Amino acid sequence: MPPLPRHTVADIALDEAVRLRCACRVRTFTRAELVARVGRDARLGMIGLRPELRCDDCGEPSFEGWTVRLGRVAP
Ligand SMILES: [Zn+2]
Questions:
Q1: pLDDT in tens, 58-72
Q2: Residue 58: what pLDDT?
Q3: Measured by CB atoms within 10 angstroms of the end CB, which terminus of the chain is less buried, N or C?
Q4: H helix or E strand, kind and range, residue 36
């Protein structure tokens, strides 16, 4: 799994989304959702640890994250 290649939410392309894996599932956040929750300047390297993005089900932070192109079939 490649690391997140960019630095902040503002660097995500409009047609990309971020996937975050917690203890129970993988969630997908679009750029707009991330801007609304954590702001454009949030650093992607630590974004899964932000309390705003913590999973509602397991309550765990996400230690893995990666970007995906919207519209592509999920692996
Ligand atoms: Zn979870």
A1: 999 999 999 999 875
A2: 97
A3: C
A4: helix 31-38
User: Which residue's entry shows tokens 């997908």?
Assistant: 28
- C-alpha dist (Å) from residue 68 to 3, 27, 72: 12, 12, 8
Distance 54 CA to ligand 1 centre (A): 8
Strand ranges for the chain from DSSP E: 16-21, 26-30, 64-69
Cβ pair 65, 56 in contact under 8 A? no
Q: 58: CA distance to ligand 1 center in Å? A: 4
Residues 19-45, mean pLDDT to the nearest whole number: 95
R_g of the chain computed on alpha carbons: 11
- Residue 74 tokens read as 């999920």
